[in-house]
Design brief:
Layout (H helix, E strand, L loop, with lengths): L5 H6 L21 E4 L1 E3 L2 E8 L5 E5 L7 E3 H6 L5 E7 L5 E8 L3 E3 L2 E3 L3 E5 L1 H9 L5 E3 L1 H6 L1 E5 L4 E5 L11 E4 L1 E3 L2 E9 L5 E8 L7 E3 L1 H6 L10 E8 L2 E15 L5 E11 L11 E3 L1 H4 L3 E5 L4 E5 L15 E5 L7 E6 L4 H4 L7 E5 L10 H6 L7 E8 L2 E8 L5
């Protein structure tokens, strides 16, 4: 799904006046601010301005403890970072991180005063996997200072004063506990056998999936063998590099101590190759799940609220082509086939790793985002998709008949 607000990103600025705050949809008090966001390739992007720099689109991420700026952008802004060691997260490796003195930060015109700035190589890490630049991330402090409502129908984020806010609506109110700054909740996973497994879930808005399960939990509960049909491929990148999962189909996931919310028949990822190694939580509950709701983070009351959408989308499907694409060489770089799933429509059609993809269904993507092509390649069982590839100067059009791999 592409959002018209991406046209504002290309222009490098945001016309916030075009998004006049409506009456609050969930609370007793009106919102203190209404800010546009873009939901692309499983991530939420919001407009942020650093000091006197132009507005840029940062990732909004409940899993990020500090306000973070990409190392390249920090250098261009003259921020001097001292070495702060390494951090781990999704991905099998560690990432070097730095720390710089605080500078003024504005999120859609709303001031944020972080005590310092974390400086990480976000853009070089994430851009090849999404084609979307990542100049920084806004995390825990922002959620602690506001009640944050994400409206995936209007593509706006509404902020409320925690002291004046009270939820009034039919949504599920789920209690949160905090692991440091990260919000967690309880859930129960139902396996194909009917067995039910209690889980500790980290509500991670930066996770690009419905549900991503850690390897310690998989081993402790013999989860992998419970799913004879699995598809192994990449999902993207985290702070530890490329992330890889066995994608499977889950019968049911319930949330909350009294099963206040449920999702049925959906695709989830089982971590492989050291992608999710933590034993502090059992799975990440990600943005694809949250986007099916009017989602409200109320840290002051330790609540995650999942309100109804007028027409909720079906649970997100996995890729049905067997192709995983990356963008090489920056904005003007080529898009190449990074991975091929064995015995998939792509492999049977003769697509190879390293093929350069020029068009999907006869069109090139507007801008650099890979999401329009990824969306087409998981559009529906039995759909026909054409892929124009270049293999060492040999240009060909290949037809794929999409098929559920899980």
């Amino acid at each position: 799904m592409r959002d018209p607000a991406w046209s504002l990103i290309v222009a490098g600025s945001v016309a916030l006046a075009a998004f006049a705050p409506p009456h609050g949809t969930s609370g007793s008090a009106p919102p203190t601010a209404t800010i546009p966001f873009v939901f692309d390739d499983g991530r939420v992007f919001i407009p942020v301005r650093l000091a006197h720099d132009s507005t840029r689109w940062f990732i909004l991420d409940t899993g990020v403890p500090e306000t973070t700026v990409d190392a390249g952008l920090a250098a261009r802004l003259g921020l001097t970072a001292t070495d702060a060691g390494t951090v781990t997260g999704a991905g099998s490796h560690a990432m070097h991180t730095g720390r710089a003195a605080a500078i003024p930060v504005s999120v859609g015109g709303v001031p944020l005063s972080p005590p310092f700035i974390s400086v990480d190589p976000l853009d070089s890490l994430l851009f090849p996997y999404s084609g979307i630049h990542a100049p920084g991330a806004i995390g825990a402090q922002f959620f602690a200072e506001h009640v944050v409502e994400l409206d995936f129908d209007a593509h706006v984020m509404r902020l409320y004063d925690p002291a004046a806010y009270a939820y009034h609506g039919p949504g599920a109110i789920l209690p949160l506990t905090f692991m440091g700054t990260a919000p967690t909740l309880t859930g129960t996973l139902t396996l194909p056998s009917g067995a039910r497994k209690p889980m500790r879930l980290l509500a991670d808005l930066g996770a690009k999936a419905n549900l991503l399960v850690t390897e310690p939990f998989i081993r402790a509960n013999a989860i992998r063998d419970a799913f004879p049909r699995r598809m192994r491929t990449a999902l993207g990148a985290g702070v530890g590099g490329e992330t890889r999962y066995d994608f499977v189909r889950i019968p049911s996931l319930t949330l909350g101590p009294h099963e206040e919310a449920e999702m049925r028949d959906f695709v989830a990822g089982l971590s492989v190759e050291g992608t999710l190694r933590s034993d502090q939580y059992d799975a990440l509950l990600g943005a694809e799940f949250m986007s099916r709701h009017l989602v409200i983070f109320d840290y002051s009351r330790k609540h995650l609220i999942l309100g109804p959408r007028p027409a909720p989308p079906p649970p997100a499907e996995a890729d049905m082509s067997g192709i995983y694409l990356i963008r090489e060489g920056g904005d003007s770089g080529r898009v190449v086939v990074h991975r091929i799933v064995p015995d998939s429509p792509a492999e049977r059609a003769g697509v190879r790793t390293g093929d350069v993809v020029e068009r999907v269904n006869g069109t090139a993507p507007r801008g650099t985002s890979l999401w329009p092509w990824r969306s087409a390649l998981r559009s529906g069982e039995g759909d026909t998709v054409t892929v124009t590839i270049d293999r060492a100067g040999d240009r060909r059009v290949t037809t794929l008949v999409l098929h559920r791999q899980v």
